[in-house]
Amino acid sequence: MKTPYQEWTEEVLNTSIRVGSIKPRSKVHKYTRATKHGKTIVCPECNKVATVYHFAWSALSCQHCNNMIDKYDWKLL
Questions:
Q1: Is the backbone of residue 20 left (phi > 0), alpha (psi -120 to 50) or beta?
Q2: Nearest alpha carbon to residue 59 among 36, 14, 35, 28
Q3: Mean pLDDT value across residues 52-59
Q4: pLDDT tens digit string along 25-49?
Q5: Which residues are within 8 A (CB) of 52 and not within 5 positions of it... i.e. 6 or more apart?
Q6: Cβ atoms 4, 13 nearer than 8 A
């Protein structure tokens, strides 16, 4: 369950990505690690953000567009 702060943060990031003020830097690679606070990733299909706490997966379904995206196609913020 998301806290109101997490929902607010995702809303701000999604808006910033949509208007172009924030650009994802790179893609997930095999050495990508998440901190204890998680890592913010961006869906390559719909450009919406998600937070993950580990990368022990090979593909992840986007919660916004419901597409199954390969791990190495996700973008990092």
A1: left
A2: 28
A3: 96
A4: 899 999 999 999 999 999 999 989 9
A5: 34, 38, 39, 41, 60
A6: no
Nearest to 53 by CA among 72, 67, 70, 40: 40
3-class SS letters over the chain: CCCHHHHHHHHHHHHHHHHCCCCCCEECCCCCCCCCCCEEEECCCCCCEEEECCCCCCEEECCCCCCEEEHHHCEEC
CA dihedral (50, 55, 61, 67) positive or negative:
positive
Q: How far apart are CA 31 and CA 38, in angstroms?
A: 15
Any residues with CB less than 8 A from the CB of 70 and at least 6 apart, and which? Answer: 58, 59
Q: Tokens for 24?
A: 């994802």
Q: Which of 34, 30, 19, 45 is nearest to 77 (CA)?
A: 34
